[in-house]
Specification:
Elements: E1 13-16, E2 19-22, E3 26-29, E4 32-35, E5 43-46, E6 49-52, E7 56-58, E8 64-66, E9 74-77, H1 78-83, E10 87-89, E11 100-104, E12 109-112, E13 115-118, E14 124-127, E15 131-134, E16 138-141, E17 144-147, E18 154-157, H2 162-166, E19 168-171, E20 175-178, E21 181-184, E22 192-195, E23 198-201, E24 205-208, E25 211-214, E26 219-220, E27 223-224, E28 229-232, E29 235-238, E30 246-250, E31 255-259
Antiparallel strand pairs: 1-2, 3-4, 5-6, 7-8, 9-11, 10-11, 12-13, 14-15, 16-17, 18-19, 20-21, 22-23, 24-25, 26-27, 28-29, 30-31
Organism: Lingula anatina
Pfam families: Galaxin_repeat
Protein name: Galaxin
């Protein structure tokens, strides 16, 4: 098309993004030319698309719905969404704009594939790149939705970030998922445990702080107990006396002390 100039604009000519167009055949929707598909009187713009105003409605998030259908979503800022306890869905209409999107109630709707969907139940979730699904009967993994009934031995090995979205499908009879890494069931199903990304025999070994150790090694929470320590509230605590065998926690003051229950009686204000 010709570039716009004052001389070219006439009663049947107009300018759209520096291009001249015939107003009897086209209209300009957000700097995008669209044909008057439904005639000059009934063709209206909704964002960059054209719709028939006699049968459709344009919502403020630039989605076209049938007349009589409620526009369930509202365009607003990220700050407004958070302030009202809502979440924001960045739809196609807001691509490139990370400050504005569509506010929605996560108890009633789910944001998926840059669109909002009504929740059928609390089990409705999004499988990115695919669509919504029911997590009680299906699972999402590696951009596919699989039926639990049809695949009883399959599961998804997921980690953080993008891995949580993509995941890896595996057979539970053959492998175990350890820290987003698939490992063989070396010690058999029910006896193979995870310690970080490694496996161990839970009948003969233990995992302590990411290390596989013998069952006789004293472990407290995620740490190995050192000499002169006792385990208090899952934390290694230095003994007050060498023969102390009991912990006493003063929750009101946040202090822990140790004592020998056969020798002392400790009084503390909890």
């Amino acid at each position: 098309m010709l570039l716009c100039s004052v001389l070219e604009i006439s009663s049947n000519k107009a300018c759209c993004d520096q291009n001249v167009y015939d107003t009897t055949s086209y209209t300009c929707c957000n700097q995008t030319l669209q044909p008057l598909t439904y005639g000059k009187d009934d063709s209206k713009c909704c964002g960059t698309q054209i719709y028939n105003k006699t049968s459709k409605t344009c919502c403020n998030d630039f989605q076209v719905v049938d007349n009589g259908t409620d526009c369930l979503i509202q365009s607003c800022s990220l700050r407004t969404c958070s302030k009202n306890g809502l979440r924001v869905c960045f739809t196609r209409a807001h691509q490139g704009d990370w400050l504005h999107g569509n506010c929605f109630d996560p108890n009633k709707q789910v944001c998926c594939k840059s669109s909002l969907f009504n929740k059928d139940s609390d089990d409705t979730e999004c499988c990115e790149g695919v669509g919504i699904y029911n997590k009680s009967s299906h699972f999402c993994c590696n951009n596919q939705i699989l039926s639990k009934a049809d695949n009883p031995n399959l599961a998804c090995c997921k980690g953080d970030g993008m891995e949580a979205v993509e995941g890896k499908v595996y057979n539970k009879l053959e492998n175990i998922c350890c820290n987003n890494a698939l490992q063989p069931l070396t010690y058999g199903m029910g006896n193979t445990g995870c310690c970080g990304a490694a496996t161990y025999n839970i009948q003969t070994r233990q995992c302590c702080g990411g290390q596989v150790l013998g069952l006789d090694t004293p472990c407290c929470g995620n740490a190995v107990l050192g000499d002169g320590q006792i385990c208090c509230d899952n934390k290694p605590t230095l003994k007050r006396r060498p023969d102390d065998d009991t912990c006493c926690t003063g929750y009101s003051i946040g202090q822990v002390t140790t004592y020998n229950k056969h020798r002392e009686k400790v009084m503390t204000k909890l």
